[in-house]
Specification:
Elements lengths: L1 E3 L2 E3 L17 H8 L5 E5 L4 H12 L3 E6 L6 H11 L5 E3 L5 H10 L2 E6 L6 H6 L1 H22 L3 E7 L23 H19 L4 E7 L1 E3 L18 H9 L6 E4 L11 E2 L1 E3 H17 L2 E7 L5 E2 H12 L5 E4 L8 E2 L4 H7 L7 H14 L7
Helix pairs in contact: 2-3, 2-9, 4-6, 6-7, 8-12, 10-12
Bound molecules: nicotinamide-adenine-dinucleotide (NAD) and uridine-diphosphate-N-acetylglucosamine.
The site of nicotinamide-adenine-dinucleotide (NAD) has 27 residues, from helix 2, helix 6 and strand 7.
């Protein structure tokens, strides 16, 4: 890995060197230039939890990728393991999506046919205390990215949206044509605003495609146990919390309320295996190649599991106890949230294949093989 003007570069495959580099001073380029120029997919936030799993699936499918990340919530080790698992190298740039010049250099150096845009901040609680950071990073960053994409003539984007855009008022199963925007926190609002911006961009220029992927609750890890979710500090989300209790890092799980109107009183969610989610991105990119305009798709299984269901499934899949107590409700939570995933099946030809047992088993394999996450 070499550092050049604040950009970390891994691997080869560039169309031409980034500014400041010539084929003379960067021998990898001489090889790269001799290769036939191939179109790549730019993955923003590709070092993160969902991005790293998607990179593997893209590489396995024979796609060329270029990855950028600013390491805000990720470690270089994740991509090192992606390369190891895929058995392939690819260019990586340490670059912030708000850095217009940095992005220009990446687009100048590669033929990018589409962007999968994961980069963003995602902690709901933090977004309440730091709203400007969330609007700047998520909304501002996406605007900058789209501006540079348009300049480079790359007008296909697959965006990481969230079921959170459906807000508090829609009944499950949630469908793509239900109203969005009644969100309760700045994080969710950034997802809603970005969806609206991307729709406007598609109206302004019919050459654009924006595939808005509304994720439900991604959990699980790559079946190798080599990559997975590596949260900073005490996790907010259920599965990383369960895993850390199971391994003894945390004493017990507090279940946030058992008086909801659900089958056992605990909150019901649509958990989806992260590798199924990653596969959804491959289908979304294929769709973007042959369609224009903005289109939203739910990526979920269509099945809801309660907190207690998930705890029991984890215990039985892995043979480990998960001590838990019932605590008060968490502010902002809803009782039930699950998808109607039929549009993604009908239009994209995508359907989640893995069940809750796979999700629990793979989460535990990652946690138990990497008790300190990527910090080993
Ligand atoms: P993550 O934090 O693991 O990955 C996001 C990556 O983006 C990180 O590697 C981070 O370092 C990088 N990043 C953040 N800001 C950046 C910037 N300005 N420039 C460059 N890189 C930047 O999160 P994840 O769980 O993999 O989520 C990926 C995307 O999916 C996010 O946009 C998130 O909001 C969205 N999403 C996640 C979930 C979930 O439960 N994990 C659910 C719905 C939507
Ligand atoms: C959270 C985010 C949402 C985001 C989604 C992505 C909040 C309020 N919402 O939703 O914006 O899109 O993740 O996956 O953070 N639970 C416990 N104990 C815990 C943790 C969670 O009982 O320690 C319960 C929650 O009350 C909920 C369920 O587990 O019923 C799932 O929680 P979580 O993993 O945080 O996801 P969401 O609340 O669906």
């Amino acid at each position: 890995m070499t550092e050049i003007f604040g950009i970390m570069i891994v691997g080869s495959g560039r169309k031409r060197p980034p500014a400041g580099l010539t084929t003379e001073n960067h021998p990898t380029h001489m090889l790269a230039l001799k290769e036939e120029s191939r179109m790549s997919i730019l993955v923003t936030g590709g070092c993160g939890y969902i991005g790293s799993h998607t990179c593997i699936e893209l590489l396995k499918a024979g796609r060329d990728i270029v990855v950028i990340d600013n390491y805000y919530n990720a470690k270089p080790e994740a991509l090192r393991r992606v390369k190891e698992l895929a058995g392939k190298d690819f260019p990586f740039y340490e670059c912030d999506i708000r850095d217009e010049e940095g992005l220009r250099r990446v687009f100048a150096a590669h033929d990018i046919e589409a962007v999968i845009h994961f980069a963003g901040l995602k902690a709901v609680g933090e977004s309440v205390s730091k709203p400007l950071e969330y609007y700047d990073n998520n909304v501002g960053g996406t605007v900058t990215l789209c501006r540079v994409m348009a300049e480079a003539g790359c007008k296909r984007i697959v965006f990481s949206s969230s079921a959170t855009v459906y807000g508090m008022n829609n009944p499950s199963p949630l469908k793509e044509d239900m109203p969005t925007g009644a969100v309760t926190n700045p994080y969710g609002r950034t997802k809603y605003i970005i969806e609206e911006i991307l729709k406007d961009v598609c109206v302004s220029d019919p050459a654009w495609t924006a595939v808005l992927l509304r994720y439900f609750n991604p959990i699980g890890a790559h079946e190798s146990g080599r990559i997975g979710e590596d949260p900073n500090g005490i996790p907010n989300n259920l599965m990383p919390y369960i895993s850390q209790v199971a391994i003894g890092k945390l004493p017990q799980l507090a279940i946030h309320g058992d008086d909801y109107d659900t089958h056992d009183g605990t909150g019901v969610r649509d958990y989806i295996h992260v590798v199924d989610l990653a596969d959804g991105h491959l289908k979304a990119v294929d769709y973007a190649m042959t369609h224009t305009g903005a289109e939203a798709f739910n990526l979920g299984t269509g099945r809801g599991y309660s907190v207690l269901d998930l705890v029991k499934a984890f215990e039985s899949a892995n043979g480990v106890p998960v001590p838990h107590v019932i605590g008060p409700r968490r502010a902002g939570d809803i009782a039930t949230c699950y998808s109607d995933p039929s549009k993604a099946e009908r239009v994209l030809g995508w359907k989640a294949k893995r069940g809750v047992e796979d999700m629990c088993r793979d989460s535990w394999r990652w946690q138990s093989q990497n008790p300190k996450g990527y910090d080993e």
